[in-house]
């Protein structure tokens, strides 16, 4: 069962052009974006995120993207998007197998987690996919130079935690068979949470 709503597309504009995040472009377009959820107080663009500040969070499920851009919904009027973390300073891994796009299969997400945890022996607490980058949580003190800067042709951004809960590196996975597979949750967290 999908845990996200369908992505939102606009008939007369897109926030992404030729693979680049360009924003809404006009006040009228930003007004249309602001009508996605009732009670939207503020719309801002913090590339790559479209940020909607709402009075109260709408009922789930929420879309992952609007107009082709990752969507971030908050009730905090001072928020300008999520903290994306620090860039890894290690090498590039599996760039020939791109994870860019509007959806990702659970199998491909598990494959990325297994590459980090099993193949590279990196302790991973959580991994999130945002369509244009990976958000990876690792234990505090992990050197950035030991962490890949790119995985499956997406930049890797790291957050640090003092939690001792780590991903199970034995998570089974299969190669994704279709990019058209039903989109699933875009994060994997430790089994015991």
Description of the structure:
The chain is of the alpha+beta class. Helices cover 11% and strands 27% of the residues. Mean pLDDT is 79; it is low at 171-193.
How would you summarize this macromolecular structure in one to three sentences?
The chain has helices spanning 27-34, 106-119, and strands spanning 16-17, 20-21, 40-46, 49-54, 65-66, 69-74, 86-87, 92-93, 126-129, 133-139, 150-151, 154-161, 187-188.
Q: What form results from the Cα inertia axes? A: globular
User: Would you tell me the structural class of the helices and strands?
Assistant: alpha+beta
- Can you count the beta strands? 13
* DSSP helical segment count: 2
Rg, Cα atoms, Å: 17 Å
Total domain modules: 2
Biggest sheet record = 7 strands, mixed
Strand content: 25-35%
**Average pLDDT reading:** 79
* Order of SSEs: EEHEEEEEEHEEEEE
Report how far apart the termini are.
20 Å
Regions with little confidence, pLDDT below 50 for 5+ residues: 171-193
Q: Secondary-structure map with pairings?
A:
Layout: E1 16-17, E2 20-21, H1 27-34, E3 40-46, E4 49-54, E5 65-66, E6 69-74, E7 86-87, E8 92-93, H2 106-119, E9 126-129, E10 133-139, E11 150-151, E12 154-161, E13 187-188
């Amino acid at each position: 069962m999908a845990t996200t709503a369908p992505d939102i597309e606009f008939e007369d504009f897109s926030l992404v052009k030729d693979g680049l995040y360009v924003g809404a472009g006009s006040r009228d377009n930003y007004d249309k974006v602001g009508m996605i959820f009732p009670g939207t107080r503020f719309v801002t663009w913090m590339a790559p995120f479209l940020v909607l500040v709402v009075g109260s969070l709408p009922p789930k499920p929420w879309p992952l993207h609007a107009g082709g851009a990752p969507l971030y919904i908050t009730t905090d009027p001072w928020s300008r998007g999520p903290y994306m973390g620090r860039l890894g300073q290690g090498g590039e891994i599996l760039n020939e197998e791109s994870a860019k796009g509007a959806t990702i299969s659970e199998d491909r997400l598990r494959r990325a987690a297994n590459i980090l945890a099993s193949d590279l022996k990196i302790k991973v607490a959580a991994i999130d996919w945002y369509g244009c980058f990976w958000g990876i949580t690792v234990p505090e003190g992990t050197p950035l130079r030991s962490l890949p800067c790119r995985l499956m042709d997406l930049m890797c951004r790291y957050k640090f935690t003092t939690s001792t809960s780590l991903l199970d590196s034995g998570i089974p996975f299969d190669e994704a068979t279709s990019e058209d597979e039903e989109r699933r949750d875009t994060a994997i967290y430790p089994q015991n949470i």
